[in-house]
Amino acid sequence: MSETKPRTAANIEARERAADYLVRRHYFRWPEALPWLIAIACFFLFPDRMTFGNQVLIMVMFALSLDLILGYAGIVTLGHAAFFGVGAYVAALLSLRLGWTEPVSGIIASGLVAGVFGIVVGWFILRYRGLTLLMLTIAFAAMLQESGNLRADFTGGYDGLPGLTFDPLFGYFQYDLYGHTSYIYVLVVLAIVFYFVRRIVYSPFGQALTGIRENVRRMLAIGSPVHHRLVTVYAISAAIAGVAGALFTQTNAYVTLTVFDFDVSAKVMVMLIVGGTGRLYGAFIGALVYMFMEDYFSKLSPTFWQFGIGLMLVLIVLFARRGLLGLLEDIGTRLKRRKTT
Predict the structure, then answer these.
(1) Residue 162, helix vs strand vs coil
(2) What's the CA gap between 169 and 153, in Å, rounded?
(3) Which helix (H) or strand (E) holds 234?
(4) Could you give the count of Cα atoms lying within 13 Å of 277 in the half-sphere of its Cβ?
(5) Most exposed among 1, 138, 186, 282, judged by the fewest C-beta atoms under 10 Å?
(6) Domain residues of the chain, as ranges?
(7) DSSP 8-state class, residue 177
(8) DSSP string spanning 194-225?
(9) Which 3-state string (H, E, C) describes 69-91?
(10) Beta bridge partners of 173
(11) Mind listing the pLDDT tens digit of every residue in the chain (341 residues)?
């Protein structure tokens, strides 16, 4: 009897700690403010680099959409550019063909259309796993790109749709040449999307996705609607990618079929590998580092800049397998252990 009491007390204490963790896990912590403070500071420190900043923020959002399905649900895809491209072309065609040039409603419409595509495509392809799923995602993006090329009279083909016009933001804020208005616009949309994704990740639905990622058969055994949840998160991810694509069109005032390229899907995958999957802020670090290195290496050597990107990726895979954010976490853990000892 004397042995069972301490064990019971220990079990109760462990349950209380677990319950406390579940209650507090979604609380914001002060380090989470750093990326946003840095983004705001860049607006004032680099006013002549806002165009580059816009592209970084858009790629952060695009990488965040991929992280939601790859890092948390375990859905491996190399065709995520399909939804980015759908969002980009919806915003462009609404402006050019229908005269719908209001930007906020444009990104909402783009996200909805991309989300519908995500539901339809996800319902069929998410029944498969592994290499089959990977090839299906690539094939879907390629089919969309070629469909756009066949209807070049409507989509502009590989010549694209340049010279798009959009109304001032909320009717008051004009888009300036240096991209200051666009930067604030994209940053606010990114903050809203990030808050939404963060709520999903720390919700019971997000924990179910993690369970599916870790062990699909076990989740099926306990009666979890695996396919339904995978399709749901796939549609949400597609909608976010569509919003990112629409912002790309609105901030650049043009779009071409290259938004569907395999290179776009591969680029965002590399960003997540660099930053770290399944960590939310890995998308921030990965997109920033990749875009900065791409810009630096392309200026250093316009012909062989991809060698530098490849070398960076090799080093990260060899020495920081959980990405740069995972490496920072490991360093922080080691420092804490040294302080305690």
Answers:
(1) coil
(2) 30
(3) helix 226-252
(4) 20
(5) 1
(6) 38-261
(7) T
(8) HHHHHHHHTSHHHHHHHHHHH-HHHHHHTT--
(9) HHCCCCCCCCCCHHHHHHHHHHH
(10) 169
(11) 444 445 576 666 666 665 555 555 666 677 788 889 999 999 999 988 899 999 999 999 999 999 999 999 999 999 999 999 999 999 999 998 888 889 999 999 999 999 999 999 999 999 998 889 999 999 999 999 999 999 888 888 888 888 888 888 887 878 877 788 999 999 999 999 999 999 999 998 998 999 999 988 899 898 889 999 999 999 999 999 999 999 999 999 889 999 999 999 999 999 999 998 888 889 999 999 999 999 888 888 888 888 888 888 888 888 888 888 888 877 877 877 777 76
DSSP-derived letter for residue 173 is B
Q: Are 313 and 270 in contact (CB under 8 A)?
A: yes
Answer yes or no: are the C-beta atoms of 243 and 188 closer than 8 Å. no
CA pair distance 272, 287, nearest whole angstrom: 8
Determine the Cα–Cα distance for residues 332 and 336; give it in Å rounded to an integer.
Answer: 6
- With vertex at residue 126, the alpha carbon angle to CA 115 and CA 198, rounded to the nearest 5 degrees, is 50
Q: What is the DSSP letter of 279?
A: S
